[in-house]
Amino acid sequence: MGNIFAVAEPTMSATSIVDKAIAGSDIVVFSKTYCPYCTRAKSALKDAGFTFDLIELDTGDVTRDGETASGNDVQNVLKTKYSHRTVPAVFVKGKLLGGCDDTLAAIKSGSIKL
User: Fold this and answer.
1) Which residues pair with 64 in a beta bridge?
2) Residue 88 and residue 107: Cα distance in Å, rounded?
3) Which is more confident, 107 or 5?
4) Among 42, 58, 88, 97, which residue's Cβ finds the most Cβ atoms within 10 Å?
């Protein structure tokens, strides 16, 4: 019997989409539309005056720069490459900031520097 908790190996397209999004924007938020923590983090960033690249993982395939991958594959990249299993996954200047609580704390402390 296989490990039901095993993460599938991400596709090259998904890896490329994640890498390009993180490298190409000061702030990137990987999110799901139904997630209340994602909504809270996105609202807090907007309210603080930050603009960000938003990648919703539950609205069909994710397409960036001519590459397409499923939202699940993109999330698997976040799990395997960054050990971040949940959404939101917020990146600032190419580094993983974290999830909702980390984002709210960084906004409150003023530690997000662009």
Assistant:
1) 67
2) 15
3) 107
4) 88
> What size, in residues, is the chain?
114
Q: How far apart are CA 103 and CA 90, in angstroms?
A: 7
Burial-class residue 109 by CB neighbours within 10 Å (0-12, 13-18, 19+): exposed
Q: In the chain, count of helices (H) and strands (E)?
A: 4, 6
Residue 109 has pLDDT above 90, yes or no: yes
Alpha carbons 53 and 87: distance in angstroms, whole number: 15
Residue 35 tokens read as 């997630």
Of the candidates 71, 70, 99, the one whose C-alpha atom is nearest the C-alpha of residue 83 is: 99
Say if CB 37 and CB 99 are below 8 A apart.
yes
Please tell me what DSSP assigns to residue 86: S
